[in-house]
Amino acid sequence: MENILVVIQNVRNQVSKKERVLCDYILASPTEVMQLPVQSLAQRCQISAATVVRFCRRLDLDGYSDLKLHLSAAVQETQGQEYGEIKPGESASEISGKLQLHFENALKVTTKKLDDQVIETVVTALHEAHQVQLFGLVSSSLVVQDMYQKLSRLGLSAVVNNDIHLAATTLASGSTEDLLLVVSTSGNTKEVVTLLKFAKEKSITTVLVTANTNSTGAMLADHLLESQNLGESVIRPGASTSLVTEFFVADVLLFRYVARYYAEVLNSLKDSRELIKRLNND
Questions:
Q1: Which residues contact 176 (CB under 8 A, 6 or more apart)?
Q2: What is the pLDDT of residues 232-262, one digit of tens each?
Q3: Which pLDDT belongs to residue 105?
Q4: Which of 26, 171, 247, 251 is the most buried (most CB within 10 A)?
Q5: pLDDT by residue (tens digit) across 149-161?
């Protein structure tokens, strides 16, 4: 079960002003909220009880009582740890504790949201593809580079592009038996949308790994694998949580491929391992 305090913190900037007041109150006094009837919490936040109930449903909870159960579990889990933003001047131990809590909950949410049937469908598509074309920008480019390396070691024909012009050229020269796999946290960047549109025009099967299932890219893709973007610290040097969940989704997909086609990929894995060993010994 994901830590509800982390979830609330990360949806805070996506909700209405009234719900934001509720978020702030819960985050500041979770133990107190556990003891309050819904009407009392609503009065303290100067909102209606119906708003509290709607907020609980937004969090995929069964109601206010369910929220209190989740708060109880979250308070016990954190045991005094903060679950807020990374702050200037914090020590390495404070930061590591926050990041551990954040990453653990991001992976719990990702696991909960992943659709096993979609994984199976994409694994089949990977196996049947003439060539797997991979595309990602900025931090997502790290994920597709990692996927390219692993797909190659499995004996699959793959190509990776982090430039829209090269990606479009590769797509234009490909066949309808190819598979386009795109990684994009937002799913709305101009390059991602354009490439998915090109693929649809060429009748090429597409897969999108994204945290935004309501994005334009999500509407265009044939298959959708949901990563998570549970928020980043304001002082972050780059994408962190979203990148971890994208790597996780990619690895679930590729390890499932290995599990299903183990007999086929075993020799490829052995050959690549031996070759790397020889290179390291030279």
A1: 202, 203, 204
A2: 444 344 457 788 999 999 999 999 999 999 9
A3: 78
A4: 26
A5: 999 989 999 999 9
Report whether pLDDT(48) > 90: yes
The band of 182, judged by pLDDT with boundaries at 50, 70 and 90, is very high
